[in-house]
Amino acid sequence: MIWTLGDVKGSLDNIALVLGGLTAGGGIIGYARTGSIPSVAAGVTVGALYALSGLRLRNRAPYGVEIGLLASVVLAGASLPRAIRTGKPVPIGLSVLATYGLYSFGMAFSGRVR
């Protein structure tokens, strides 16, 4: 199957909203468990970017895909090095979410650019 932006766009808003909820929820849980203010700040910030992306995609506003891709790059930049260095489950899980976001939004972005 060849993917086009039209095929992906309907579900891309849902992907963005789910990733936003997971990252924001994870940051809040991280704060509740360890008292880590950086966890809640990063989680809620990246979650807000994903949520903004999802809402812009749902309303067919510009830059929804780009904001989702930005959130994925930020999440990957923060989580992948920690996952590789520590091998702990939370950074690995965040890396999986970031990789899924990079793939989803990257495919949509590359379909738009061509």
From TrEMBL:
TM helices/strands, residue ranges: 12-31, 37-55, 67-84, 90-109
- Major subcellular location class: membrane
Spell out the subcellular localization from the entry.
Membrane
- Family annotation (Gene3D superfamilies): Transmembrane protein 14-like
Asked if the Swiss-Prot or TrEMBL record annotates the protein with the keyword Membrane, the reply is yes
Q: Which domain of life is it from?
A: Eukaryota
Alphabetically sorted, this entry's keywords are: Membrane, Transmembrane, Transmembrane helix
**Can you list the GO cellular component terms from the UniProt entry?**
membrane
Family the entry assigns:
Belongs to the TMEM14 family.
Protein's name in the database: Uncharacterized protein
